[in-house]
Amino acid sequence: MVLTTVEFGQIAQGMGLFVFGCAILTGVAFVKKWGWRFRMVGVTLFSVVLTVGLFALSLTPLTKEVVPGAMPYKTVYDRFGSLAVIVVAPTITPDELSLTLEQAAARLFSTGRINNGTDTLTVRARTIIHPRPGVSEPIYLGSWQQSLRRRSDPDRVLEINQDNFNRLKSFLNQ
Question: pTM here?
Answer without folding.
Answer: 0.68
